[in-house]
Design goal:
The complex is a heterodimer. Chain A is built from 9 helices and no strands. Chain A is mainly α. Chain A has one domain. In chain A, helix 3 packs antiparallel against helix 4. The mean pLDDT of chain B is about 90. Chain B has 9 helices and 10 strands. In chain B, helix 3 crosses helix 4, helix 3 packs parallel to helix 6 and helix 4 crosses helix 6. In chain B, a hairpin with a 2-residue loop joins strand 9 and strand 10. Chain B is globular. Chain B is an alpha/beta fold. The chains are: A mainly alpha, B alpha/beta. At the A-B interface, helix 4 and helix 5 of A face strand 6 and helix 3 of B. The complex binds adenosine-5'-triphosphate and magnesium ion. Magnesium ion binds next to helix 1 of chain B.
């Protein structure tokens, strides 16, 4: 009786230990292959275009609407305190510190992480990864390292762009809907924002880029058994990357802003 | 150095409760072409992948050029891999790359050859398997199954390996193209001085390309010998396979409808 209750718990516990061990090993191996030659600059550039350039529309839309809604909601709160002049500050700090990197990371997990898992998963189940190895090419170097490097480099750039677009969205709503003075809105934004706000956001972005590429490639690499396996890998990649992004966000925020 | 290119002893591999290889012993002499026959699902592909190092065997020893490769470090393994060329049963072409880059892949990524030079070699290899330069610009998804197989063959021989593995090279080809591929394999083995280990169900192909033959059954090699003697092997299992009879010691686990 007791055994029947405890056995599944133990089994799940052991399985999760095994899974995290595998992931840790995979992470370590991938990072080593990122820094050891041979490198494939061609593939890194290709991935940067795939991850960065083609994500611009998605990230831009996310940022502009977030900036706009942020103004509307903050206005409700601060107008009760007669503190409307703080709106630019609230918008820019929320965007640079939190919403920019987190939303960009989550969108990227859906767009890029899923694609990586599907592509590498398909390569796994159609033996293309085995074929790579028979052609003296290390799949970690050829498939995984370029994606990791590209994602880590590109997401901060995307987030910087998203920050600017988001502030612009807030500006539009403030000026055209709430009748703020354009000059004062921009001046307040620039005066209030601090380097640490932006830097912490960009550091987060790099970490989230790493998480997205890592979970995308890991899920794809581990996939087994045909179309269904690839489908599962894709889901796993998005879900695990999203959760890890939110958790990492908490940890990095804690590191930056507790004294 | 011994005259054995590949020497397999006591090789075992199970997937879960299923014992696929159960003590395989196999010798492939240098510069010879050995063909392994056996029923569907008898572990032929698994055997080849173990020798290539794509599957880790549970037990046993595999020597390549007299060097033990089971349990070898990953870096040394990669060096050994340079001796190999492999034609996968399912072709396994890279679907994100055009055909010519597939063929040139081992030259560009594996050996660091310049792209232009590698493309020239690739187009030559494609021509050798009966595919024109216009096919080189297509993507694998745009090819028929038989064309994919030929591209895969061109990719396997492009790096001029010392040991070539062919997993069912003629399955899915018309009889004429199958014969062309057979002759190509023979020519490769002779001109490169390569050693070949092939798998086939096709007795025509076996007679065309094999110097030696072996049959795998229930996880072991039950017969091995000169390919010319396969018709008088004196082994009931081999005889049934060669003649393609449904009656005999090998029973297919099927029930009547
Ligand atoms: N990765 C794997 N996981 C689990 N079982 C496997 C795996 N690969 C092969 N098998 C099993 O091993 C057995 C042998 O497979 P293998 O592919 O070697 O057969 P084969 O002799 O090449 O057959 P065919 O002539 O049909 O290609 C099969 O029963 C298969 O189910
Ligand atoms: Mg097979």
């Amino acid at each position: 009786m007791v055994a029947r209750v405890l056995q599944p718990i133990g089994r799940t516990f052991l399985a999760s230990l095994e899974a995290s061990g595998r992931l840790a090993l995979f992470t370590l191996q991938s990072m080593l292959h990122c820094v050891a030659p041979p490198f494939y600059p061609r593939l890194i550039v290709k991935q940067m275009i795939e991850i960065g350039f083609y994500s611009l529309p998605v990230i831009g839309m996310t940022a502009v609407f977030t900036g706009m809604v942020l103004v509307l909601q903050t206005y409700v709160a601060v107008s009760r305190l007669n503190a409307e002049s703080t709106i630019p500050y609230v918008v820019v700090i929320s965007l640079t510190r939190e919403l920019g990197p987190v939303l960009a990371g989550l969108m990227l997990a859906g767009r890029v992480g899923a694609a990586m898992a599907a592509e590498i998963g398909t390569m796994r189940v159609t033996e293309q990864i085995d074929a790579l190895r028979t052609l003296s090419t290390n799949p970690f170097k050829y498939l995984i390292a370029p994606r990791l490097i590209a994602a880590v480099l590109v997401l901060p750039v995307l987030v910087a762009i998203a920050d600017i677009i988001g502030v612009f969205g807030g500006y539009l709503v403030s000026v055209y809907r709430l009748d703020f003075s354009p000059a004062i809105y921009l001046k307040n934004t620039v005066d209030f924002v601090e380097t640490i706000d932006i830097v912490s956001g960009l550091v987060k972005a790099a970490a989230f880029g790493f998480i997205v590429a890592l979970m995308g490639t890991y899920s794809g690499f581990q996939s087994r058994g045909g179309a269904q396996g690839v489908g599962k890998a894709t889901t796993d990649a998005v879900v695990s990357a999203s959760i890890l992004i939110l958790a990492a966000n908490f940890i990095i925020t804690g590191l930056f802003f507790t004294r | 150095m011994s005259d054995l290119k590949i020497k397999v002893r006591g090789l075992k591999k199970a997937f879960g409760p299923k014992q696929v290889l159960n003590g395989v012993d196999l010798d492939v002499p240098r510069g010879k072409s050995l063909v392994v026959i056996g029923g569907s699902g008898s572990g032929k592909s698994v055997l080849i992948k173990c020798i290539l190092g794509l599957i880790e065997p549970d037990a046993g020893s595999i020597e390549i050029d007299g060097q033990e490769v089971v349990g070898m470090k990953a870096a040394e393994r990669e060096d050994i891999m340079r001796k190999f060329g492999m034609l996968f049963q399912g072709s396994a072409l890279f679907d994100s790359l055009p055909v010519w880059e597939n063929v040139a892949f081992g030259l560009i990524a594996g050996r660091g050859m310049a792209r232009a030079a590698a493309k020239e070699v690739a187009l030559r290899k494609l021509a050798a398997v009966g595919l024109g330069p216009e096919v080189g610009e297509l993507y694998p998804a745009e090819l028929s199954g038989g064309m994919q197989k030929r591209v895969s063959l061109a990719r396997a021989i492009a790096v001029e390996p010392e040991i070539i593995f062919f997993d069912e090279p003629t399955t899915g080809l018309d009889p004429i193209m199958a014969q062309v591929i057979n002759e190509l394999i023979v020519k490769c083995v002779q001109s490169l001085g390569a050693t070949a280990l092939s798998i086939t169900h096709d007795m025509h192909s076996l007679r065309a390309i094999a110097d030696q033959a072996a049959m795998i059954y229930e996880g072991r090699i039950i017969w091995a010998g000169d390919a010319k003697t396969i018709d008088h092997s004196g082994n009931a299992h081999v005889e049934q396979f060669v003649l393609g009879r449904a009656e005999g010691p090998i029973r297919m686990p099927v029930r009547p409808l």
